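During the reporting period the student researcher (J.K.) took over the structure-prediction task from the postdoctoral fellow and processed the backlog of single-chain submissions. One of the processed entries is reproduced below for the supervisory committee.
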Amino acid sequence: MIQSSVYAKTAKGKQEIEKRSFDLPFEARAVLIIVDGIRTVDDYASKYGALGDIRAILADLEKNDFLEPVQHDAATAQPATQRTAPATTPSTPAPTDQLQAATLELRRLLKNTIGAGTDAVGAGADQLLTNALENCATPEDLLAYAQDCASIINVMQNDKAAADFMAEARDLIRSLGDLDSRGDPDPS
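J.K. obtained the following structure tokens:
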């Protein structure tokens, strides 16, 4: 596995998310849910290390046909089969007290949205989500985290709950600075 590899869900992976057809362990299911066809193996390993050996989980998901590598177009060096994330400029970190307040508010929003529904993902979901949130150091990190949570909420509940969560999360994150001028990625 190349650390810069990008993965996308296969039909079997999508079936597992929708129907829990294959009874994946919590860690594997959580990783499968957050795979977006954009981020690399290294991105996941640095952000979701609390789940265990992310590289091994991704390799196992690929081996069992839940994920497939995204092919790259050699001419553009861009993945040919994935959605493209908007270009963003590096963020100036928000003042620590503002970022901490936003982090606490985002945690509250997430808990209110998913409530006791974490059993849809698995027994360690709350800890995973909390650990990933603590790694956020910029408004962009918070936005990426919120998008991952929206993907999980969409699976656990529905599109409307995920969209409502993202709308509130964006409002909260925008209060830290003008995120729109840096490119506000689409949550889908």
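The committee noted the following: Confidence is low (pLDDT under 50) at residues 73-94, 180-188.
J.K. will present the remaining backlog at the next meeting.
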